[in-house]
Specification:
The protein is an alpha/beta fold. The protein folds into two domains: about 1-115, Response regulator (Rossmann fold); about 130-195, no CATH class. It is built from eight helices and seven strands. The strands form two sheets. A four-stranded parallel β-sheet has the order 3-2-4-5, sandwiched between helices. It has a three-stranded antiparallel β-sheet with strand order 1-6-7, with no helix packed on it. The radius of gyration is 22 Å and the shape is elongated. The mean pLDDT is about 85.
Length: about 220
């Protein structure tokens, strides 16, 4: 299961973003932010209480099923009057949700969360970053293990000199990505793939802002 992994902004930063905005409508998300406990029902309730104790009027709140869905407008229409009364919307969703809501409403939006990465659930409540969406994929030469994401240094031509007994020198509790790649290629009898020199990474693999159009038949 792939999710946008978020963390709540520091309280001081949220206060600063809401400075001069006395009436707030809070929006949470029923998918990613609920799963990571950063913008689901309990977190929205806690935020309401926290802002209320600081003298702000909460005009309403909602936890949208999927905040980044284009159907968000229809869901928010039910709260039109409460939203209209607000000076700003405090959005407890990933950046995709914030931008979706901002594009659909003529209201100031304030993000309450930082989007950290796109992650895959690897255990109960555990998520690992699996792709930085760099646009220059080398998975075909690395046995399906991404060194750009899995290696702290993003090395694409083998391990650094600091790997120690298969562990990363930056995080000694983390397997060295290139040790994992070596072991995978060895199992597949494809170790020769490690001899292929990768060109210097193109950090602008896809011009920003990125756009993609599905080719017509």
């Amino acid at each position: 299961m792939i999710r946008s992994i978020t963390q709540q902004k520091p309280e001081e930063e949220i206060d600063q973003l809401l400075d001069g905005l006395g009436r707030v409508f809070i929006v949470g998300c029923g998918t990613c932010a609920t799963l990571t406990h950063t913008g689901g029902g309990p977190e929205v309730e806690a935020m309401k209480e926290k802002l209320s104790t600081k003298g702000r009027l909460i005009t309403g709140d909602v936890v949208l099923p999927v905040a980044c869905d284009n159907l968000t407008t229809e869901a928010l229409n039910e709260y039109g009057e409460q939203i209209e009364l607000a000076d700003a919307l405090l959005i407890m969703t990933c950046a995709f949700g914030v931008q979706t809501i901002a594009s659909q409403l003529k209201k100031l939006v304030v993000p309450a969360l930082n989007t950290v990465f796109i992650g895959k659930e690897t255990g109960l409540g555990q998520f690992n970053e699996i792709c930085t969406q760099c646009g220059t994929c080398v998975l075909g030469e690395t046995g399906g293990i991404c060194p750009v994401t899995s290696c702290h240094k993003g090395l694409v031509n083998g391990p650094c000199g600091g790997t120690n007994n298969g562990m990363c020198e930056i995080d000694d509790g983390k397997d060295c990505a290139w040790t994992l790649i070596y072991n995978r290629l060895k199992e597949l009898n494809r170790l020769d793939a490690m001899r292929k020199l990768q060109k210097p990474r193109n950090h602008q693999g896809e011009p920003r802002p990125g756009k993609f159009t599905i080719p017509s038949d």
